[in-house]
Specification:
Layout: H1 55-66, E1 73-77, H2 83-93, E2 97-100, H3 117-120, E3 127-130, E4 134-136, H4 143-147, E5 149-150, H5 152-157, E6 163-164, H6 167-170, E7 175-179, H7 186-198, E8 200-205, E9 208-213, E10 217-222, H8 231-234, E11 239-243, H9 249-264, H10 266-272, H11 274-290, H12 298-311, H13 317-332, H14 340-351, H15 365-377
Parallel strand pairs: 1-10, 1-11, 4-7, 7-10
Antiparallel strand pairs: 2-3, 5-6, 8-9
Helix pairs in contact: 1-2, 1-13, 9-10, 11-13, 12-13, 12-15, 13-14, 14-15
Length: about 375
């Protein structure tokens, strides 16, 4: 534009076009003038063996690590009682597992019946040792982020319909952890119920039809003051643990002292408990090897059935959970057989969330299970 207000015509530059066969341009962030500084290494996880008290919670998590068929662990209790710390500490000491190289679902080379469609099409399946996945499912996650969706980048750049695996795919053969599980949205609860029952995730959307293995140990934590859990999802947890704030002075002091030492120097603190964590990892490996050969005597099965009958539990999932958890506990402790003591110690965790509410009994479910154990399983 000139000073007198007239407009001068500017020459137009030719606009470049992209043919249908060419890839459209991809916008990328401009490279910085200097290379970015490397991020500091993350602090090591608080050691599982350094957790003070909460014996029932630690035992339930170890049982689920020995036998994933137990069905998961629900940890309910007060805030600041070490729920998340224990779960993440367990993840750090799990023994590695064998997986097919390059498989997005970490299929087990020794179980061809559970392989995904990628592994079934391969003639040779090279294996590698990988850490057991422990995946966090945030409360605000979308459905596509959980189950998987169309890979938009490949669809736009290559014109291909490809599946982008979600959190359920990453958690296959591992642990799926949900903090504040009682606040999870209903549509995500419905998804978890379907997958937990079948062990397979089915995705039908945007012209995709995908089925892949999704077998994981479901671990949830929450505060009962913030809401109850849906009965359908509650029944899917094999074990339910109640944690409370320590009331004795020495325990509280020990918790504060250890946490302060960890925050001051995480590396030195974890090094002090490395030997204890290695012992737990070794015990888990031995328990998994011992578990298939450990049988449950008929007397123990009969005692489990009598206990569930006396408590009025719905269905037979209580007996199955009691049998599996008692056997896993015996395997972890190196016992040669499953006896009534194993059954009595695990009964509260396996049955407290399966009882019907009795309006004539003001005592909680834990007290009811304890009374039944004393009446039926006491020597």
């Amino acid at each position: 534009m000139n000073l007198n207000g007239s407009i001068r015509a500017m020459p137009l530059k030719p606009v470049s076009t992209v043919s249908a066969r060419e890839k459209p341009p991809i916008l990328r962030a401009a490279a910085p003038d200097k290379a970015p500084r490397s991020l500091p290494a993350a602090a090591p996880t608080f050691p599982f063996s350094a957790i003070v008290g909460q014996d029932e919670m630690r035992r339930a998590l170890l049982i689920a690590a020995v036998d994933p068929s137990v069905g998961g662990v629900l940890v309910f209790g007060d805030r600041g009682t070490g729920k998340s710390t224990a779960i993440r500490g367990l993840a750090a000491l799990l023994p590695p597992m064998a997986a097919v190289v390059g498989c997005p679902y970490a299929c087990d080379p020794g179980r061809p019946a559970e392989h995904c469609h990628h592994c079934r099409e391969q003639a040779v399946l090279p294996a590698e040792s990988v850490p057991v996945p422990v995946v966090d499912l945030p409360l605000g996650a979308t459905e596509d982020r959980v189950v998987g969706a169309l890979d938009l980048e490949r669809a736009l750049t290559r014109g291909e319909k490809a599946f982008e695996p979600g959190l359920l795919a990453r958690a296959n053969r591992g642990f799926l952890y949900i903090d504040e599980v009682n606040l999870l949205e209903d549509h995500l609860v419905d998804l978890l119920l379907d997958v937990a029952a079948s062990g397979v995730n089915t995705v039908e959307r945007e012209g995709l039809s995908i089925r892949h293995p999704a077998r994981f140990v479901l671990v949830g934590s929450g505060n009962p003051e913030e809401g109850e859990l849906r009965p359908q999802l509650l029944d899917r947890f094999g074990l339910a643990v109640e944690v409370t704030t320590p009331t004795d002075l020495p325990t509280r002091i020990d918790v504060v002292r250890r946490r302060d030492a960890y925050e001051r120097d995480p590396a030195a603190f974890c090094a002090g408990y490395a030997k204890a964590d290695r012992a737990i990892r070794k015990a888990l490996t031995a328990a998994r090897a011992r578990l298939p050969g450990l049988s449950v005597p008929d007397a123990t099965l009969e005692a489990a059935a009598r206990l569930c009958l006396a408590l009025g539990t719905d269905g037979l999932r209580g007996e199955l959970t009691l049998m599996r958890t008692a056997r896993a506990l015996a395997a972890y402790e190196g016992a040669e057989t499953v006896d009534l003591d194993h059954l009595a110690r695990i009964a509260p965790s396996a049955l407290r969330h399966r009882l019907r509410r009795n309006p004539l009994d003001e005592s909680g479910s834990t007290a009811r299970v304890a009374r039944a154990v004393e009446d039926l399983l006491a020597p």
